[in-house]
Amino acid sequence: MTTVEEDMHSLKEDLNSVMLQRAAKHVSATNARAFEIVASHGKGSYLWDVNGNRYLDFTSGIAVNNVGHCHPKVVEAVREQAGKLIHIAAVTCHEPLIKLAEKVASLAPGNLDTVFFNNSGGEAIDAAIKMARYVTGRTNVISFEGAFHGRTLLGTALTSSKSHYRDGYEPLPSGIQHVPYPNCYRCPVGQKPESCKLECFDLVEKTFKHFVKPESVAAVIIEPQQGEGGYIVPASGYTGGVSYMQRLREICDKHGILMIVDEVQTGFGRTGKWFAVNHWNVKPDLMVLAKGIASGFPMAAVVSRKELMQKWLPGKHGSTYGGNPLACAAALASIQVIEEEGLVENARGMGVYLTERVKELAAEHKFIGDVRGFGLMVGIELIDSDGQPDGKRLAALVEACFERRLLLLDCGSYDHVIRFLPPLNVSRAELDEGLAIFSEALKAIA
User: Fold this and answer.
1) Is 353:389 a contact under the CB 8 Å cutoff?
2) 41 and 82: one domain?
3) If exposure means fewest CB atoms within 10 Å of the residue's CB, which of 83, 96, 242, 384 is most exposed?
């Protein structure tokens, strides 16, 4: 090989570094990336970088690519729509928006039949809180410790998964109270799962007694499985009776408080149900959707009852790009794929298989403290010898997986939980491939 050929070969092999140097000159560093590679293309469960390296992608763009990278039916739908109409905003309505609203209403729990579209989960959270305050005439909102509700100022005020998200932005919007999330692995009241009677719910009542009167509370907002906070599943009351989510519904009804569920990360089949609240047969007043709705196109929604939405008068909120025709087309195609390919059922079945296999690995490694989650939203908590969160070992685990071409992300207040988020159409063979790499990585950091 000549010197020129060697130089060209070296440049090709190091294209990631070249591209990242270019990015560093003009791309804001505040929007941090998890891995120092530059993506070239993706297909299904796999992602390729510009050097041609293939990675098994179990991040799904943070629960966005529910039908995998570049599903042919989504690509075809977007191409067709791009030749018809790309943007119209609030000038007129358009057919894809109407069809998508009808479809979302048909899937939503209870009688949530009216939809407001915008562009991201954070925007949709803002919209839901604005709507709740406006239609109730109340000001206060209850959120949960460990919550993540977006990066807007209001979303940041609702968020408490990490102080990092809030640092430097105070004063944040007021009128928000946080209560402990019902975390069975690290119970906020020191109860054991086998004897749990949902004593943690008393903390909600305590908030009403000491901080805000219930008649001043517009809404309670909750993730039916916490995302950034550590993939925590809320307590179900192991001694029988109603679950935490059902108790929350009851107390909201008692005091005329709107119940908002943040299904940004859990929605559209991710947990083995269309929506995570379906695990408890709970019917919220408002539901916030984003991420998995449109295979990566900017799309989010607030879904509520017609009687509530009608109180949110025309012009009281809006979105220039909300309900964009291309995003609507992508969402309709994504939902169609989930239905036609039975991906909700696949997420449920593959989730059971994934959880069982990871629990087998947990029996081999004492630093795995807990394995939890619904469907294909599985979190693995790492602990040190004292049972405390071990973010340092978790970082080593993520890196060890990356070196072996498996992409996984962390979460949790101490970055101590690793999360499995494969696409909903992941195959058994792909899961086995990922689990084999994960097992190797566990041994490497042990």
Assistant:
1) no
2) no
3) 83
Question: Does residue 152 lie within any of the structural domains?
Answer: yes
User: What whole-number distance in Å separates Cα of residue 262 and Cα of residue 147?
Assistant: 10
**Do 331 and 352 reside in the same domain of the chain?**
no
Do both 234 and 295 map to the same domain? yes
CA 131 – CA 337 distance, rounded (Å): 32
Unique residue bearing structure tokens 């690290």: 186
Q: Cα–Cα distance between 237 and 200 in angstroms, integer?
A: 10
Total domains in the chain come to 2
pTM above 0.85, yes or no: yes
Q: What is the pLDDT along the chain (446 residues), one digit of tens a residue?
A: 455 455 445 555 689 999 999 999 999 999 889 999 999 999 999 999 999 999 999 999 999 999 999 999 999 999 999 999 999 988 999 999 999 999 999 999 999 999 999 999 999 999 999 999 999 999 999 999 999 999 999 999 999 999 999 999 999 999 999 999 999 999 999 998 888 889 999 999 999 999 999 999 999 999 999 999 999 999 886 555 679 999 999 999 999 999 999 999 999 999 999 999 999 999 999 999 999 999 999 999 999 999 999 999 999 999 999 999 999 999 999 999 999 999 999 999 999 999 999 999 999 999 999 999 999 999 999 999 999 999 999 999 999 999 999 999 999 999 999 999 999 999 999 999 999 999 999 999 99
Residue 166's domain comprises 73-340
Query: Within this chain, do residues 382 and 441 fall inside the same structural domain, yes or no?
Result: yes
> How is residue 42 written in tokens?
């993706």
Nearest CA among 284, 302, 306, 142 for reference residue 224: 284
Q: Is residue 26 included in any domain, yes or no? A: no
- Crossing angle of helices 3-13 and 15-26, in 10° steps, is 60
In a domain, 8, yes or no: no
The per-residue DSSP string of 189-244 comes to T---GGG---GGGHHHHHHHHHT--GGGEEEEEE-SS-STTT-PPBP--TTSS--H
Cα–Cα distance list, 213 to 154, 179, 203, 208, 221 (Å): 21, 14, 14, 5, 16
Question: Which domain-ending residue is among 292, 320, 340?
Answer: 340
CB 303 within 8 A of CB 267: no
Residue 28 is assigned to a structural domain of this protein? no
Half-sphere exposure at residue 104, Cβ-oriented, CA atoms within 13 angstroms: 32
